[in-house]
Amino acid sequence: MKYRLSHQLREGRTLNRYQRQLAIIGHDGQELLEGSTVLVIGAGGIGSPVLNYLAAAGVGQLIVVDHDTVELSNLHRQTLFNEADIGCHKAHRAAETLSERNSDVVIEAYPCEFTVELAQQLMPSVDLVIDSTDNYGSRYLINDSCVAFRKPLISCSVFKNIIQLALFDTRTICYRCVYPHAPPAGMIPNCAEAGVLGTVTGIAGTLTANLAIHYLVQIDDGTNPTLRIFDAGNFSLDSFPLQANKNCIACKQKEINAGHIEYGSDIPANKIEFGVYLEAINREDYLLVDVRTRQERELIKLDDDLFFPINEQSNYDFFLSYREKKILLYCAAAHRSQFVAAELRAKGVDAYYLKNPILPL
Question: Distance from first CA to last CA of the chain, Å, rounded?
Answer without folding.
Answer: 22
